[in-house]
Design a protein that fits this description.
This protein is α+β, with helices and mostly antiparallel strands. It contains 6 helices and 5 strands, in the order αββββαβαααα.
Length: 228
């Protein structure tokens, strides 16, 4: 993802990236520090599915992306009826389609819902259950449907994102400016361009405009978790 802190000098030179840099500085770099964090690389990889024995329990790993990113994995512990959903699950906040497709993410939600689970630990937000997964699925279906209607009507992706409104429960979710990134992703799918690299600076610039306009309009910052 663009602007990850590992890129040298980007964090200290955010002004060089215009509106995109101003937005990312506002929601990430002024709120969070990566000091002391050590990147630990995996020692084992897998494709599709892998079962590990941890103590006396099976932990089943599934690769269900690309959705949020190109490699979205979850961990399911059948004995405990527990799912660790990773970044496929944003609870109480707008999920963000960076490198995947809506259909894959919706399908991933459907697959998770098919399992015998009681407790769901998301990548973002509080511990939840199956209704929490359904809410994410409902959001993705809503955005895809609303984006398609505006795409067919000839609206540009930024205009379409600003035109989409939210009702309960989505109107109370954090990070509403992510609708811009999500509509852009949907438009790329509709145009058959999802596999090509996106112009991340342009997308983040438009997201920043939405964020700061909402702050000026409403008299307070748009709620943001600062988590991508």
């Amino acid at each position: 993802m663009l602007f990850r802190s590992g890129r040298p000098n980007i964090r200290s030179h955010w002004r060089d990236f215009g509106e995109a840099g101003a937005f990312f500085n506002e929601v990430m770099w002024t709120r969070f520090s990566d000091e002391g964090i050590v990147l630990t690389l995996p020692t084992q990889s897998f494709e599709h599915e892998l079962t590990l024995r941890v103590g006396d329990k099976d932990v089943r790993l599934f690769m269900l992306g690309p959705a949020h990113t190109r490699g979205d994995a979850v961990a399911y512990v059948p004995q405990d009826r527990t799912l660790f959903g990773g970044d496929l699950l944003f609870i109480g906040g707008h999920p963000i389609v960076w490198d995947g497709q809506f259909g894959n993410w919706i399908g991933a939600c459907e697959r998770m819902l098919s399992w015998d689970i009681e407790t769901v630990v998301p990548g973002h937000g509080p511990v939840t259950d199956k209704p929490g997964i359904r809410a994410v699925k409902d959001y993705l279906e809503y955005v895809l449907r609303e984006a398609r209607a505006r795409y067919d009507a000839g609206l540009g992706w930024e205009e379409a994102a600003r035109d989409i409104t939210f009702t309960a429960p989505f109107d109370a979710w954090l990070d509403r400016e992510r609708i811009v990134i999500n509509v852009h992703a949907a438009y790329r799918e509709f145009a058959g361009a999802a596999a090509a690299p996106a112009d991340r600076i342009a997308v983040l610039s438009a997201t920043g405009r939405y964020y700061f306009d909402h702050r000026r309009c409403c008299g307070a910052p748009s709620p943001s978790s600062g988590q991508a």
